[in-house]
Amino acid sequence: MTYRRFILILVVFSLVGCAQFYPNFETPTVSVKSFRVLPGQGALPVFEIGLHVINPNRTELTLEGISYHVDLEGHRVLSGVANQLPVIEAYGEGDVVLQVQPDLFSTLSLFTDLMNQPRDQFKFDLTAYLDVGGFMPKIKVQKEGLISLNGQKN
């Protein structure tokens, strides 16, 4: 048996073996719990994004990380990552709270649009990827809605 064939067989058995660790894994449910504007200390506001995670599995869900981006009125103004996340117990629920401040330059076109057409509510599109580690695929979350200047999500 050649060295390459041995490595190929080893890789195949490793992947099959890893799939056996999660034969009944159900994808957790992730919903947007809150999306609001917090008072900022500078010229730009701080946004708080609250996610609620439901783990329908018999093992705890260790969230390794999350990456996300938010479009407001079609303009990508928020993006970030987080790695200080809670462990969601087996058959449990937990919340993830993200706070992010927009980049000044990425919001210029949004502010220009708002000056031309003032409004009290903004359309938001949130895309987040939750990394549960191992060989599991990332969990993709996509939500859209309205956020008002008084901090309530619709």
> What is the subunit organization of this protein?
single chain
Q: What Rg is obtained from the alpha carbons, in whole angstroms?
A: 20 Å
* Topology, number of strands: 9
User: What is the residue-averaged pLDDT?
Assistant: 80
CATH topology title: Immunoglobulin-like
Helix proportion range = 10-25%
CATH 2nd-level architecture: Sandwich
**What count of helical segments does DSSP give?**
2
Through-space gap between termini: 63 Å
Write the layout of secondary structure elements.
Blueprint: H1 3-21, E1 29-38, E2 46-54, E3 61-62, E4 65-72, E5 75-82, E6 87-88, E7 93-100, H2 108-116, E8 121-131, E9 139-148
Structure description:
This protein is of the alpha+beta class. The protein has one domain: Immunoglobulins (Immunoglobulin-like). The chain is 18% helix and 44% strand. It has helices at residues 3-21, 108-116, and strands spanning 29-38, 46-54, 61-62, 65-72, 75-82, 87-88, 93-100, 121-131, 139-148. A 4-stranded antiparallel sheet has the order 5-4-8-9, with no helix packed on it. The radius of gyration is 20 Å and the shape is elongated. The N and C termini lie far apart (63 Å).
Briefly characterize the structure.
The chain has helices spanning 3-21, 108-116, and strands at residues 29-38, 46-54, 61-62, 65-72, 75-82, 87-88, 93-100, 121-131, 139-148. It is an alpha+beta fold and 154 residues long.
Keyword list:
single chain; about 150 residues; alpha+beta; Immunoglobulin-like; four-stranded antiparallel sheet; three-stranded antiparallel sheet; about 45% strand
